[in-house]
Amino acid sequence: MRKVILTCAVTGSIHTPTMSPYLPVTADEIAREAIAAAEAGATVLHLHARDPKTGKPSASVEDFMGFLPRIKQNCDAVINISTGGSTQMTLDDRLAPARAALPEMCSLNMGSMNFGTFPLASRYSDWKHDWERQYLENTRNVIFKNTFTDIASIVTELGASGTRFEFECYDLSHIRTLAYFLKEGLVKPPLFVQFVLGVLGGADASAETLMTMKATADRLLGDAYEFSVLAAGYQQLRLGSMGVMLGGHVRVGLEDSLTDGARRDLAPGNGHQVARIRRILEELDFEVASASEAREALALKGADRVAF
User: Fold this and answer.
1) Which of 40, 61, 120, 140 could pair covalently with 271 via S-S, beta carbons 3.0-4.6 A apart?
2) CA Rg, the chain, in Å?
3) Given this structure, which CATH class describes domain 3-305?
4) GO molecular function, one example (predicted)?
């Protein structure tokens, strides 16, 4: 039986505290949610940090170190640190946590793009914090920047410590860019490719788009890759399950969706989302991979070689 790598993205930088009381903000909350996700079956934990006082996305090494050692000490899951940060951080800001922690995995957005979260601002009128509305509105005018030079510098610098990557592909062009880096020898198989569906400015969250992205990756990457599916919002469970049936893996978590699937009720935590997708997969006769199995499949360096 082929085993499925189940990633949980615990808090992210898209949603704001007003949107859900379950969104983890402090180091205690992020650690608790990450450990709960691992206990529910998550193989990989994809992590961002937040300012503990305001809940605003943070690239502070101190904020990351408030939870990274605790998570490592309390579970065996692979820890994956974002290099995406948020659209409103500089490249050096975004890379600071990974440079300090030298994790087994990092996320890596495979191109510059519009990344629009501003439609969320119209859904709320009573905000917990002053920064939230403007933070969302700013995405009308800012571009997430990862140029060819940026990508090359990230894979070279972080790759030198043995860190490997979750290559986040928001569109077909990102798959082609990854194929270029593979051809040039700057990235090595096995590649772990995350198809990101449903972000405004990127590919839409539909079955047709997922099929097209997989066909493109098959053509351009051949047998050099494993893929996972991330679908923003209420399509999370549907398209994630479809991705597994197509031979891939799956990512869930409050970074990607605050809801409990198509019912659109607020999910009470990351562990709840992990448990739901795991139950679905097991009903379909799939088995979730252990952390050690994921390390072997993705050629990771091991938790003993990180800096936290």
Assistant:
1) 40
2) 18
3) alpha beta
4) metal ion binding
